Amino acid sequence: MLFRQLEYLVALSRERHFARAAESCYVSQPALSEAIRKLEDELGVPLVKRDRKYEGLTPEGERIVLRAQRLLADRDALKDEVGALRAGLTGRLRIGSIPTASGAVALLTGPFCAAHPLATVEVSADLQSRDVLRQVRDFEIDAGITYVHEELPAGFRVLPLYEERYVLLTSVPEDPAAQPTVTWAEASRLPLCLLTGAMQGRRVLDEVFAGAGLSPAPRVETDSVGALFAHVRSGHWASIVPHAWLHVFGVPYGMRAMPLVEPARRIPVGIVTAAREPESVMARALMDVVRHVDVATALEQLPGG
Predict the structure, then answer these.
(1) Tally of CB atoms within 10 A around 69
(2) Rounded to whole angstroms, how far apart are CA atoms 109 and 114?
(3) What is the pTM of this model?
(4) What is the pLDDT of residue 176?
(5) Cα torsion through 293, 297, 303, 304, rounded to 10
(6) How many C-beta atoms surround the C-beta of residue 266 within 10 A?
(7) Which of 18, 26, 198, 214 is most buried by a 10 A CB count?
């Protein structure tokens, strides 16, 4: 049995398509198929349901993929450990995050790269919360940043980073007599542009509205942070955004950001890694950085002071 055969099987499980799996492994489709057939012969069980096209893994295949993911992750961890002992930490740190946590990710990658100049970082910052957990579980990323207000399944370690709170972003000009805060009920009556319902950040907002007995009907929905700010800039819409975004974008000229109250909801956000021994070298190095960075305080600072 070769590691390469396990890599092909894991790729097929992930891509659910022979051609795409082969492309992701930089081999031809016949080469990938033949390697998986040899693995089946060696193990003595069918791993893939075959017809004219890929139809999924057999029950045996599903179980072996889980083992293969762990074996490949342990192999990579061993290589990283040896590299760190020889010349300092090398390789690539893979971080996945929900879109609203992009500012927090940026606060961690700088100190990590400064501490480990031979390492690189890959950030996937447009994941849904469930995808963050799945990719950590399947060893596709080393760590994930996501909401941790609900109890996570077994198999994860969690370190809190900050509490996400919300502001109403409008294009109303500055008015010294304007109220300093706005209620969720008042916000619900405005022409809103919000994230799409499929995104975890939007589902959190819907929970807050529902808890207050409100059912807003946003006229515009988008999966883009930039699109939210652009629509508010147009002067026709208001939006509800996490305060942490203001650390990145600031409050653009001509806009106002007012804290939302009644209720003043705060949602904990944390960094998640796989609870396994030995721990991934990359994950351990990142967590060492996290323990020395006050993310919550840093996110309170706006551009330009």
Answers:
(1) 19
(2) 9
(3) 0.69
(4) 47
(5) -110
(6) 13
(7) 18
